[in-house]
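Quick start: read one record
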Amino acid sequence: MPSREVSCPKHHMRVVVGGATGFIGTALVRALLARGDQVTILSLHPVRAGRLGSEVEVREWHPPAVDDWAGALIGADAAVNLSGTPVIKPWQPWTTSEKAKIRNSRVDSTYALVEALRLADPRPPVFVSQSAIGYYGDRGSDVLTEEAPAGADFLAAVVRDWEAAALPAEDAGVRLVRTRTAVVLGKGGEMPLLELPFKLFLGGTLGRPDQWFSWIHLSDLVSLILFAIDNEEVRGAVNASAPHPVTMTTFCQQLGAALHRPSWVPFYPLLLRLALGQRANMLLASQRVIPERARELGFVFQHPDPGEALSSIYA
């Protein structure tokens, strides 16, 4: 059985990354470069991608054409897709056009990258396609492994379509890994929104106190993606979520402690919906996700406890 340490490859690799300019992508690119890999970035925003450093190659995408991307993928050792517009934007309602943007930024980029994979010869042997635990919907206290069925709300439908867009890669003989990612803890992403009330000394439980909150430290997520790239045993859906989900009350208490702020003002669902509209559904969904597949394969989480994980971020 492979262990996390195996994710240092025996030879330097060339990895092609889509969506590299975001919170997760930036951390992944840095980790790839740190271990000596070559990185090619596929981006709609080449100027922004170029800020990741002179060591990376940047290929601009002109949708719907995929020829440039196919050329970048020829002979690569792996491809990773992290594309997608942020789901949570405070005070911006989920209009029909905004929902379409959330869906299309994920599904269309995945379709395009898979089509480029199919055209590339030789093509990368592995494709890691970002997904999300939104796949499961609001599930109360149910324990959710990779075998749990999909939910029925808007975000669950988006994630189902997102994963479906990646599946043709398997028909092309590419090993496909779908990383169903929980809320990522780090200095960026959704954390500034979660931090804000605490920094104003108005922190407290977000939503229902007994709802389950699943999370993963940014460094563990990056390591899990590297683990998926390097180990041929990893394929299919993998819950990228720490092994110890907690109730929202517990998480908010630990976040307050890490920020040296009290956790005393409850943010009832109504208040969250007033601030975030339908986007609040992401924070109000109760999801008790367990990384069963990652643990079976021997992946070791360096930050399994949320209190320690938060302390490491704000130390």
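The CA atoms of residues 96 and 102 lie 10 Å apart.
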